[in-house]
Specification:
By secondary structure, the protein is an alpha/beta fold. Helices cover about 35% and strands about 20% of the residues. The protein has a single domain, classed as 3-Layer(aba) Sandwich (Rossmann fold), CATH 3.40.50. It is built from two helices and four strands.
C-alpha cells in the first residue's frame, strides 16, 4: 500500500514513516526540504510547499493510497493571536492542498 505523509520532517512523522516502510509499505513523505534518497532508508521524499497543488499530487494517484496529514507550523510558540493565526493557516492550507489534489 502507498502511504503519503504530508509534513514528514518532524519526530512523529519520521518514526511513522520508518515503521511503515519497515512493514513493506510504499511510503512517500511530502516535505519542503527533501533529503537525498539514501538518507531515509526506503522512504521517498517529494518536495511540496504545503499550500498549493504541484507535481507531488501524482503520488496520490495509486489506487488505495492512504494520506496522513501531519503538516503545519510547530506549536512551540506563545499563544498570541498572530501565532494562533499562523498555526491555523499552516494547517488549513496544507489540508486544502491535499483535498484539492485528491479530487
Amino acid at each position: 500500500m502507498r502511504i503519503v505523509i504530508a509534513g514528514g520532517s518532524g519526530t512523529l512523522s519520521r518514526a511513522l514513516s520508518t515503521a511503515l516502510a519497515e512493514r513493506g509499505h510504499d511510503v512517500v513523505v511530502l516535505t519542503r526540504s527533501p533529503h537525498p534518497p539514501a538518507q531515509r532508508g526506503g522512504v521517498r521524499e517529494v518536495p511540496w510547499d504545503g499550500r498549493t497543488v504541484g507535481p507531488w499530487a501524482r503520488e496520490l494517484d495509486a489506487p488505495g493510497t492512504a494520506v496522513v496529514n501531519l503538516a503545519g507550523k510547530l506549536v512551540d510558540a506563545r499563544p498570541t493571536p498572530e501565532n494562533i493565526a499562523d498555526l491555523t493557516r499552516s494547517r488549513v492550507e496544507a489540508t486544502t492542498a491535499l483535498v484539492d489534489a485528491s479530487q
